[in-house]
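User: Last request for today: this protein with copper (II) ion, please.
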Amino acid sequence: MSAALSNNASRILAVPTAGELAGEKKMLLAFWVTGFLALAVGISIGVLQSTNYAGINLYPYLQPFLKSYYQGLTMHGVLNAYVFTFFTISGWLMYLPARELKLKPNMGLAWFTYALMLLGTLMAAYGMFDNSSSVLYTMYAPLKGSAWFYLGITLVVVASILPLFVVLEMRARWKKANPGQLTPLVTYMSATTLLMWLLAALGAGTEAVFLLDPWSLGIVHTIDPLLARTLFWWTGHPIVYYWLMPGYVSIYALLPRQAGGKLISDPLARLAFLLLFVFSLPVGTHHQYTDPGISPVMKGIVTALTLSVAIPSLITAFTIALSLEYGGRRRGGKGLMGWWTALPWKDASVAAQVLALVSFIFGGAGGIVNASWQLDNVVHNTLWIPAHFHLTVGTMTTLVFMGVSFWLLPHLTGRRLYSPKLALWSVWLWFLGLMTWGFAGHWAGMDGVPRRAWVSALPHDQYMQLYGAVHPALIIVGIGGVIAAVGAVLYYIVFFGTLFGQKDAKAMVEIPFTQYITSSEGSVMARIAEPLGLWTLITFVITLAVYIPVFWPMLTHPIHAPGFVLW
Ligand code: HAS
Ligand code: CU
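Assistant: Here's the final one, the structure of the complex with copper (II) ion:
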């Protein structure tokens, strides 16, 4: 495109020069390295939690660093689920549209996002490391952490909104130069994800600014736990799609090409993203089926709405399976499943993403159980729930990003991927470890083993009396965690081996943007999905329609609870 542009047009569009491109790569690298460093700390602590369930209490040996299981669990959740995801996603969703549109992003804003997010992370980390804020990643009041922690999280959330403006500004510039044209797919997906996140963040943002921050600063002395939880889950549900959709960007727009084929349909991808946007906002109270103070009518409505949120992922399952089949057949796969074995399994990036999809079949199925109000009563607050989210965010999101890093790091650094063989091992071990963990965690959860419990601190007799019947499952949980940890060690050898490895001119790989079998040209669906401002408004109105009846009784019957520090 740039060659065809006149000097004037290229000035208006701000097409990046080679030097500026190098700056953009540096920016994304900073986001990814920081995110993956946080993940390394988070994963290390995760091993302790798996062994905890197997009945092995390692915390007394870690005294100066970790005072309790709960402090470790808080760090694990915050570092993995927030810091790792926010950093990697923010960089990813600014860089990829910039490359697709061949435009220069607002680098000042991009670096400001990074700096603010880093500051927030350091503040929250301080609050966790000094053991003043072992409130777990859900931050349920009236458990009370320190102001460092809540203010830090507030900054991180505010920073995570900023990439939206970088993307919208580039989209506007591109639209001005290409009037009447549809937004290219990756930019469409990135903008939808970030708009969804803007609306999503309003809940936790309100909770932080109006409830948690002033309470932790001593400006007010009590808090309304139900209101705080409900605001948290306004965000806490759609955040899972904020973790999922950036992975889907790779699955839809890059993986088909990496697998040797094309994406079956561009308009279907847009439909999936649009539905994820609209459906994920109003359903947060499905995390509160067991909470008092929310009417059964609303819980019933939310059940039905939550089940609809599976539709875009089912669309994804069929669209991507077909796209992979197409790739496999082009690579010579024959017969019913020959395409499956013909996929480029030796390519660690492809293997990671396809295995992530396989794990997500089970993660998604568990989600549908959770969504059903009656069934959720059986599994809520048991180990089933962590099992569900280790197959979703722990495998689907994280493994896709690990897979992406195998081409992205060489692309950003101009260095060769360190040991593709080790990369492949790391992928399989992460997958097998978490699938094992997930299987056993679901099993133990159905037998009533609670989540978030320091079970290994119990005297052995008592542990066996309570959990002896499920001990085999709990031992498998421990084994799964250790297998995944070995995979993680191999992964980080590859990660740092690449970062500090050999320069290689051939490593400057292009981004594998896919082609489409059905493009969006002339598609009515793609036209309907295009006005993102309108869809944001529609989603906001639907969300309010569901939430006003939920919030009303809380606002008219407030609760004033003092804070607790139980650790
Ligand atoms: Fe969830 C709890 C419902 C998806 C994460 N979820 C959680 C928590 C987390 C989480 C972190 O309704 C715990 C929060 C806490 O600490 O309390 N979840 C759902 C539903 C879905 C779902 C209906 N969850 C996710 C995703 C997550 C995530 C995605 C992170 C990334 N979840 C719930 C509910 C709770 C919950 C309740 C509260 C439970 C409670 O009691 O507290 C759906 O979106 C799932 C739809 C997905 C599918 C799968 C589609 C399959 C695909 C793969 C295809 C494979 C291919 C490969 C193409 C229907 C796309 C080819 C393979 C071949 C074999 C051919
Ligand atoms: Cu949810």
